[in-house]
Amino acid sequence: MTGSESRLTGPVRVVGVGLLGTSIALGLRARGVDVILSDASPTNVRIAIDYGAGRSAGDADEPQLIVVCVPPDVTASVIVRELSAYPRAVVTDVASVKAPILRAVRAAGADVTRYVGSHPLAGREKGGPMSGRADLFLGRPWVVAGHPDISYQTAAAVDDLILDLGASLVEMTTEQHDSSVALTSHAPQVVSTLMARRLVSAPEAAVNLAGGGLRDVTRVASSDPGLWVQILGANAGATAEVLRGVRDDLDEVLAALSAAADAQEDDAATGAAPWRRTLAETLSGGNAGVARIPGKHGQDRRYAQLVVMVDDRPGELARLLTELGEDGVNLEDLRLEHSPGAQIGLAEIAVLPETLDTVTSALAARGWRIAG
Ligand SMILES: NC(=O)c1ccc[n+]([C@@H]2O[C@H](COP(=O)([O-])OP(=O)(O)OC[C@H]3O[C@@H](n4cnc5c(N)ncnc54)[C@H](O)[C@@H]3O)[C@@H](O)[C@H]2O)c1
Ligand SMILES: O=C(O)C(=O)C[C@]1(C(=O)O)C=C[C@@H](O)C=C1
């Protein structure tokens, strides 16, 4: 690819080359943009350079855009420093909270006519430059949390960054952003963590029965505690409000379960017990909530699932993917499940619903066992 394929002219300076910074840098390098890398850790800069994410800073650098990708606690002070060090650059950051950062940048008296915060709703539970991926942002929402002191013309550089990385731009105020992510990201992190904590002292025999449900619920519980203390602390009010709603529902479920446990057998058999209705309503509410989550690429589209049994031998998964490619199948998603002691893995693949029958027959014809 060449630089002409990017909207940004560059150079772009990335400050903080962990997961987010390295992913942004790799994505821009793939479009030919000149990327300057900076981090408090010289080791992280070296790793990111070795990865092909960009070059080290020079005295004569005149960045068009600076993207601050450091932990939330230090984001405002780094923004203030960068605005002052590069008086012609537009500055954005990618921290997971927006209102407290804008407030702190304003309070420091910095030039907010060149600063607008942003936040890609894309990430992983693993940080550091080695987790960086050029395609991390493809099809993901990326919020620009605007404010009245920056002009559209100046903020356009941030829009260009988002579009160059293949993300979809969403405009919100900082407050709308923070209350939205309290619901979609920050409270879910706590719920996932609380469930995962139940496993710490559980018997090994029980934990070994872990299936897809537990893995889905606990994936983000592996995230960096240091980063999340900062995120939750900075968005405490809005996150607590969501969690109070969760607590109310949980109290209802506990009451229903307690009634169910106490119920006489014949009472349970009538089907009319109030606890049964409470549980059914709660579970249906969950169905209705999940149905509102947009699919991949932000479309409200559901995919058909197919589970293929993959022998636990080197190269088998690669063979499955190659053969799907040979059959012209576009995978919308792929998830692997592997139980301890099992000689097979389950590859759960998502395809467009209209292609499900064709894909199933093509795989069966090649001898793959379809589990569901
Ligand atoms: N992890 C995610 O999924 C995710 C997603 C969206 C946004 N974010 C936000 O992106 C930011 C970075 O998160 P990450 O996951 O990339 O973290 P990370 O730990 O992978 O990377 C942070 C980097 O910042 C560097 N750093 C720390 N203090 C610095 C300073 N004062 N000056 C320069 N460099 C400094 C660290 O050395 C490290 O390389 C955070 O604000 C986070 O809220 C994270
Ligand atoms: O680990 C992931 O899958 C994430 O996408 C992480 C996630 C999220 O909750 O959506 C976490 C925090 C960030 O601010 C943005 C993204």
Automatic annotation (TrEMBL):
Pathway: Amino-acid biosynthesis; L-tyrosine biosynthesis; (4-hydroxyphenyl)pyruvate from prephenate (NAD(+) route): step 1/1. It comes from the Bacteria. It catalyses: prephenate + NAD(+) = 3-(4-hydroxyphenyl)pyruvate + CO2 + NADH. One of its GO terms (molecular function) is prephenate dehydrogenase (NAD+) activity. Pfam families: PDH_C, PDH_N. Residues 10-287 form the Prephenate/arogenate dehydrogenase domain. It is an enzyme of class 1 (oxidoreductase). Its EC number is 1.3.1.12. Residues 305-372 form the ACT domain. Keywords: Amino-acid biosynthesis, Aromatic amino acid biosynthesis, NAD, Oxidoreductase, Tyrosine biosynthesis. InterPro entries: 6-PGluconate_DH-like_C_sf, ACT-like_dom_sf, ACT_dom, NAD(P)-bd_dom_sf, PDH_C, PDH_N, Preph/Arog_dehydrog, Prephen_DH. Belongs to the prephenate/arogenate dehydrogenase family. This is Prephenate dehydrogenase. It comes from Herbiconiux gentiana. The lineage of its organism: Bacteria, Bacillati, Actinomycetota, Actinomycetes, Micrococcales.
